[in-house]
Amino acid sequence: MSARTRKTATVKRAGDPRVVRSRAAAVDAARSLFLRKGYAGVTMEEIAASAGLARRTLYNTFADKRELFTRIVEDTIKQAGEFAEGLDEGFFSGITAATLRPALGDLGRRLALGILRPEVIALRRLLVGETREFPGFAADYYDRAPGQVLEALASGFRRLGRSGLLRVANPRLAADQFAYLVAGEPLDRAILVGKVPPRARVRACAREGVRTFLARYERTGRREARVSPAC
């Protein structure tokens, strides 16, 4: 079989609904097992059994568990990329003085809820625990997931500074501060303890974080003294 014929066969096989289902089942099973038992504590045989696949089918779909682990990390990075793309596609350009506070309030809430999801926290804990086995994974994840979101935030705050809505001398610093204010403390606690706080508390802390951010950066200098007791 020629190289071109093999490539054509591989493409056709990849589009086979049975192969698509097998891949999805394998990824779901591997994600659950990795997050529960760690990378070293899981075997391909366990993944196959959990996914309801024959061992041979699993190996025909993924070469080894490293490939599966890489796929799971890539899926999470892709979600963060989609969030960042949403910020790049005109989110900040539509903000006016009248909509600044609600717009940033909504952004802070969505960012915090997106970060503080059980599967994201579990993956971050897993990456920290597997740095010896995968020394570059955590850095790559940071650069392409949180890092990409922070760059999008910085670009947006730069735009708001140019339009006169924010006082922003250092957009990247403002982005770092915004992200930590809306999600930092609950995220630190969740990473260390392994328990994600209730969504109501996440929303309340994000709301207070945005108020603090605006107290520092909003050009009008308005202040709100009210503090949510839920945070």
Characterization of the model:
- The protein has 2 domains: 59 residues, Arc Repressor Mutant, subunit A (Orthogonal Bundle), CATH 1.10.10; 147 residues, Tetracycline Repressor, domain 2, CATH 1.10.357.10.
- The protein starts with a helix and ends in a 14-residue tail after the last helix.
- The longest helix is centred in the middle third of the chain and has 27 residues.
- It has 11 helices and no strands.
- With 231 residues, the protein is mainly α.
- 74% of the residues lie in helices and 0% in strands.
Number of domains: 2
Q: Largest sheet, described in full?
A: none
The CATH superfamily name of the largest domain is Tetracycline Repressor, domain 2
CATH class of the largest domain: Mainly Alpha
Sequence of secondary-structure elements: HHHHHHHHHHH
SS-based class: mainly alpha
Count of strand segments: 0
User: Per CATH, what is the topology of the largest domain?
Assistant: Tetracycline Repressor, domain 2
Computed Rg: 21 Å
